[in-house]
């Protein structure tokens, strides 16, 4: 009876090991697909930076990764415990005749456990490496976009400053031209004034000699004053209009 009980115990351990191995196999396949889809989604997002890309949210994938990692680690721990119990069973008295077959079975389960453990750590390491690399690239892209945005603002400011500077230069140039015209007009008027004084002096001399001419000269002087007032008004208006245009 003791042999039958021991045999049943060994079979129960083997059933537990096979069940855990099947669960681990399914979990590792899903885990590998998750890591592959994470890498693919990152590559797709790198090619399309728009916010409307229909991809699984990174935070959701990260939570799924953490959850599946814990589940697989728990299954590996359970399978390790079952293997340890199987190893203890092979060392119990009364199993010497079956020891070679038991050790062969135990070794096969240990190899499977080792393969699953290696596959899990390899997949997990690849996932973490991809996430770390993409986080770094995302940070670099963010810095580049921030730099481009700041550069665009600086370029617009520089362009506005250049336009304002050019406007001020044009205003200064127009003011210089206006002043030059005013100075030339003043010199011309001074020259004409001197000529008119000379002519008036001669006319006054003739008027004193010929009284009939005196009345004509007075009329001419009145008309000259009127023309001078009109000319002065026109020049003043033109000067004001030029100044308004310059500072507009």
UniProtKB/TrEMBL annotation:
It is a single-pass type IV membrane protein. The chain crosses the membrane at residues 229-247. Its main location: Golgi. GO terms for cellular component: cis-Golgi network; Golgi medial cisterna; Golgi membrane; SNARE complex. GO terms for molecular function: SNAP receptor activity. GO terms for biological process: endoplasmic reticulum to Golgi vesicle-mediated transport; inter-Golgi cisterna vesicle-mediated transport; protein transport; vesicle fusion. Residues 37-59 are annotated as: Disordered. The keyword DNA repair does not apply. InterPro entries: Golgi_SNAP_su1 (IPR023601). It is found in: Golgi apparatus membrane. It holds the Pfam family V-SNARE_C. The keyword Oxidoreductase does not apply. Keywords: ER-Golgi transport, Golgi apparatus, Membrane, Protein transport, Transmembrane, Transmembrane helix, Transport. Involved in transport from the ER to the Golgi apparatus as well as in intra-Golgi transport. It belongs to a super-family of proteins called t-SNAREs or soluble NSF (N-ethylmaleimide-sensitive factor) attachment protein receptor. May play a protective role against hydrogen peroxide induced cytotoxicity under glutathione depleted conditions in neuronal cells by regulating the intracellular ROS levels via inhibition of p38 MAPK (MAPK11, MAPK12, MAPK13 and MAPK14). Participates in docking and fusion stage of ER to cis-Golgi transport. Belongs to the GOSR1 family. Component of several multiprotein Golgi SNARE complexes. This is Golgi SNAP receptor complex member 1. It comes from Myripristis murdjan. The lineage of its organism: Eukaryota, Metazoa, Chordata, Craniata, Vertebrata. The gene is GOSR1.
